Automatic annotation (TrEMBL):
SUPFAM superfamilies: Thioesterase/thiol ester dehydrase-isomerase (SSF54637). GO terms for molecular function: 1,4-dihydroxy-2-naphthoyl-CoA thioesterase activity. InterPro entries: HotDog_dom_sf, PAAI_dom, Thioestr_dom. This is Hotdog fold thioesterase. Pfam families: 4HBT. CDD domains: PaaI_thioesterase. One of its GO terms (cellular component) is cytosol. Keywords: Hydrolase. Residues 84-159 form the Thioesterase domain.
Length: 173
């Protein structure tokens, strides 16, 4: 039987989930003492708890490099709006997470961020047959106080569902 890209993505997600710590919120001190890159990568080693929003929405961090991150989720009926499609908030949440964490991955210890603006463009709808999707975030520029990032949601065949840009404020924590 041939393994599809979708199957490979789901297998990678399963492997990552087996190493993850229970969902939770890291302390301010824990966050303050780690670079954004180390903090995020700790989610895949079991050192940093994945956030409760990831449990609620059913997504997981796949990879965090300097300035680039990838999250994965599989949209399902639990994400539907009343018209029988995945709610736009699902895509917006995945994209906000990906672009924000892309910014976070560039920050040194002692720095944090918050979203000032998020712009999402929806290309096509998702449903419970879409399969796994990945939200890919990438920093465009990061300065001492402001960072800008872009992101997109794609399926295992490379089909794009939504894209976004964000502006984030960087500050000491």
């Amino acid at each position: 039987m041939e393994t599809t890209m979708s199957d490979a993505w789901l297998a990678e997600e399963t492997e990552i989930r087996t190493k993850a710590a229970p969902f939770g919120v890291a302390s301010r001190d824990y966050l303050r003492e780690r670079s954004g890159h180390d903090f995020l990568n700790g989610m895949n080693t079991g050192e940093t708890p994945p956030p409760p929003i990831a449990e609620l929405m059913g997504f997981v961090l796949i990879r965090a490099d300097h300035g680039e991150v990838v999250f994965q989720g599989t949209p399902g009926r639990q994400h539907y709006n009343p018209s029988g499609m995945v709610h736009g908030g699902y895509a917006a949440t995945l994209l906000d997470t990906a672009v924000g964490c892309a910014v976070h991955s560039t920050l040194p210890a002692g720095k944090g961020f918050t979203t000032l603006e998020l712009k999402v463009n929806y290309i096509r709808g998702m449903n419970d047959k879409t399969g796994p999707v990945r939200a890919e975030g990438k920093v465009i520029t990061a300065g001492g106080q402001v960072a800008v990032a872009e992101g997109r949601i794609v399926d295992a065949n490379g089909k794009i569902y939504a894209h976004a840009t964000t502006t984030c404020l960087i500050f000491p924590i």
